[in-house]
Amino acid sequence: MPTDKSIPVITIDGPSGSGKGTISRMLAQELGYHFLDSGALYRLLALAAERRGIALDDEAALVVLSRELDIRFPAASDSEQVLLEGVDVNNEIRTEAAGAGASRVAVLPQVRTALLARQRNFRQEPGLVADGRDMGTVVFPDAGAKIFLTASAEERARRRYNQLKEKEMNLVFEDVLADIEARDERDANRTVAPLRPAADAALVDTSELDIPATIECVRYLLKNHLNR
Ligand code: C5P
C-alpha cells in the first residue's frame, strides 16, 4: 500500500544520547501522532539474527530475515513494548550490546533498503513522529518538519551511563564513552545513509539543555519555523 504523502511527518534525527528518543515519544503523545522508533527495528533485527545463529555481516540472510520478521509496537506512543514474535523484548534490545549489534547490521545497504517500506508504513493518519538517523534524509525526505538533535559525546555518554548503570552493575563510564564514539564513527562514515542532518533540518544542540528545555525548544521550532 503506497503511503499518503499528505500525512504530516516530523523527523527527529541525531546520534544516540542526544535526547531524540525521549523527545520524539513525548511529541508524538502530545500531538496524538504515531511514533516510529527506527533504531528499535535495527536492534530487533540484530537480536533476531543472533537468536537464529545468523552472522551480523551475512547481508543476504539478514535481508530475508528483515522482510519476514514478526515485529510489532503494540499500544500507543506511551508504551515502550516491542514485540518480537509476540514476546516483549524491550529490555533486551536496550542494552549496549544490542545497540552495538544494531549499528553493525545498519551498515549493510540491502538491509536498509529492505527496511524502508516497513518504516514508511508507519505514516498513518493523523501523523507521524519518526526517530532515527536518516528519517529526514532518506526515509521521509518530503517531511514538512525536520529536526536534528545533537550533544557533545561526553554529555551523551554521561546520559547513557546514568540510564544504564542501574541495569548493568559493572558499567564503566569510559567504556560507555568509547562505545558512543565508536558508534558515532560507524554511523557517520558508513556509505549508505550516514548520520548527518538533512539540508532543511533545524539543528538543536542539547548539551546544555535538559528534557523540558529541549521539548520547549522543539515546540517553538515547530510552531514558528517548521512547516508541519
Ligand atoms: O537509535 P538507536 O540507538 O536505538 O539505534 C541503534 C543503532 O541503529 C544506531 O547506532 C544506528 O547504527 C542504527 N540506526 C540506523 N538508522 C536509523 C536508526 C538506527 O542506522 N534510522
Oligomeric category:
single chain
Computed Rg: 17 Å
| Order of the strands making up the biggest sheet | 2-6-1-7-8
User: Going by CATH, what is the homologous superfamily?
Assistant: P-loop containing nucleotide triphosphate hydrolases
CATH class group:
Alpha Beta
CATH fold description: Rossmann fold
Order of helices and strands: EHEHHEEEHHHEHEHHEH
Summarize the structure.
By secondary structure, this protein is α/β, with parallel strands linked by helices. Helix content is about 50%, strand content about 15%.
Can you characterise this structure?
It is a single chain. The protein is of the alpha/beta class and 228 residues long. The protein has one domain (9-222): 3-Layer(aba) Sandwich (Rossmann fold). Helix content is 49%, strand content 13%. The chain has ten helices and eight strands. The protein has helices at 20-31, 38-52, 59-68, 90-93, 96-105, 109-120, 135-139, 153-164, 173-189, 211-224, and strands spanning 9-13, 34-37, 71-72, 83-84, 87-88, 128-132, 145-150, 202-205. The strands form two sheets. It has a five-stranded parallel beta sheet. A three-stranded antiparallel beta sheet has the order 3-4-5, with helices on one face. Strand 4 (83-84) and strand 5 form a beta hairpin. The model has no long low-confidence stretch (mean pLDDT 90). The structure holds cytidine-5'-monophosphate. The site of cytidine-5'-monophosphate has 14 residues, from helix 2, helix 5 and helix 9.
